[in-house]
């Protein structure tokens, strides 16, 4: 055990002491090896703080902002598009503007967001073959599989096989479109509204919208599921 | 010639669909990138370019946050925000602190 101070409880200081004889009372944690990249994170962060480039508070605030964004954001957008044809048209026309109207801060890193609509004829899937670009403003951080070499490699040339791994089977005549994201352009899939949801409220509808259906590897949850 | 990061269409095995909760240090890497981005001291395309020149061994052999932090450090040096000397001194200090822990 060599790295109590930074990884177990997120202290920014390394010079605190413990009462004599008292060990760290922390639970076992897998996050306990100070590898080279982890040392690099500590070193770079401390150096940037010392040089006055950024502050520990800014790092904390960025983590809070990160934690505040989740697929619930995207689900709200999708549910609104399902109930409000005008909003849907606006979303497909200019997703940044439409999402800003719903109260999302879309200004992070000045990215263009494009919403692509699933229909019985066309199914859309999103990937970033070159790295991991993802509509974080609406969905939060990407899942590990989205960043995986296997997903990035395969989804562009065998999307149906990849969909099958996610338990998704499409009719043979559905066109599958795979959208490759870039540093400046992100995609959000607008999934099809499930059947038998006519009487549902926007909030109930949002609960049917999963992260995976907004990436396009699955359909929205069915009503009553 | 295809670079190592350009893997779209390459053969690969099944997708590991396990969910991975980010560890705190991994979040700090993302936070560093976000804060520096908001200060116009880094950009996502610049981050990607750094990843594309970090070397196949590091890229393919590291976790996501592991390669991101190394790419970010390279970019901070390239931009002159920090120097190689400052960073290597700080790395040595961090390592020494680690070794002094009981």
What does this structure look like?
The complex is a heterodimer of chains A (225) and B (102). Chain A has 225 residues and is an alpha/beta fold. Chain A folds into two domains: 17-67, no CATH class; 70-215, Nitrile hydratase alpha /Thiocyanate hydrolase gamma (Nitrile Hydratase, Chain A). In chain A, 41% of the residues lie in helices and 11% in strands. A two-stranded parallel sheet of chain A has the order 1-4. In chain A, helix 4 (71-83) crosses helix 5 and helix 5 (85-93) crosses helix 6 (95-101). The N and C termini of chain A lie far apart (46 Å). Mean pLDDT of chain A is 88; it is low at 1-16. Chain B is 61% helix and 0% strand. The relative contact order of chain B is 0.11. Chain B has 102 residues and is mostly helical. In chain B, helix 1 (24-38) runs parallel beside helix 4 and helix 2 crosses helix 4 (64-78). Chain B has a single domain, classed as Orthogonal Bundle (Cyclin A, domain 1), CATH 1.10.472. The chains are: A alpha/beta (225), B mainly alpha (102).
Quaternary: heterodimer
Estimate percent helicity of chain A.
Answer: 40-55%
CATH class of the largest domain in chain A: Alpha Beta
Low-confidence stretches of chain B: none
Mean pLDDT of chain B: 94
Topology-level CATH name of chain B: Cyclin A, domain 1
Based on CA inertia axes, which overall geometry of chain B fits?
globular
Q: C-alpha Rg of chain B, in Å?
A: 16 Å
User: Based on CA inertia axes, which overall geometry of chain A fits?
Assistant: globular
% residues in beta strands of chain A: 5-15%
CATH superfamily of the largest domain in chain A: Nitrile hydratase alpha /Thiocyanate hydrolase gamma
Number of domains in the coordinates of chain B? 1
Q: How many helical stretches of chain B?
A: 5
Along the chain, the helix and strand elements of chain B come as HHHHH
What is the H/E order of chain A?
A: HHHHHHEEHHHHEEHH
Report the uncertain regions of chain A: 1-16
Kindly name the structural category of chain B. mainly alpha
Structural class of chain A: alpha/beta
CATH homology group of chain B: Nitrile hydratase, beta subunit
């Amino acid at each position: 055990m060599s790295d109590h101070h930074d990884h177990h409880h997120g202290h920014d200081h390394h010079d605190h002491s413990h009462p004599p004889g008292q060990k760290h009372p922390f639970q076992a944690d897998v996050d306990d090896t100070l590898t080279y990249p982890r040392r690099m994170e500590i070193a770079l962060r401390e150096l940037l703080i010392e040089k006055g480039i950024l502050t520990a508070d800014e790092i904390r605030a960025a983590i809070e902002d990160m934690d505040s964004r989740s697929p619930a954001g995207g689900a709200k957008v999708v549910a609104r598009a399902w109930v409000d044809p005008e909003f849907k048209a606006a979303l497909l026309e200019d997703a940044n503007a439409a999402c800003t109207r719903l109260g999302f801060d879309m200004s992070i890193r000045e990215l263009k967001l494009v919403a692509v609509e699933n229909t019985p004829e066309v199914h859309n899937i999103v990937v970033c073959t070159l790295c991991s670009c993802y509509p974080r403003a609406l969905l939060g951080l990407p899942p590990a599989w989205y960043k995986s070499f296997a997903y990035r490699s395969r989804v562009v040339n065998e999307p149906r096989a990849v969909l099958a791994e996610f338990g998704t089977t499409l009719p043979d005549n559905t066109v599958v479109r795979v959208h490759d994201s870039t540093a400046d352009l992100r995609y959000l899939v607008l999934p099809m509204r499930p059947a038998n949801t006519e009487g549902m409220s926007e909030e109930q509808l949002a609960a049917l919208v999963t992260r995976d259906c907004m990436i396009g590897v699955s359909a929205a949850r069915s009503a009553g599921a | 010639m295809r670079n190592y990061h350009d893997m779209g269409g390459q053969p690969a095995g099944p997708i590991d669909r396990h969910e991975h909760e980010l560890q705190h240090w991994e979040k700090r890497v993302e936070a560093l990138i976000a804060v520096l981005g908001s200060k116009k001291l880094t950009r996502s395309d610049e981050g990607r370019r750094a990843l594309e020149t970090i070397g196949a061994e590091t890229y393919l052999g590291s976790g996501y946050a592991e390669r991101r932090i190394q790419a970010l450090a390279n970019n901070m040096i390239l931009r002159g925000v920090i120097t190689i000397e400052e960073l290597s001194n700080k790395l040595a200090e961090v390592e020494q602190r680690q070794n002094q822990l009981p």
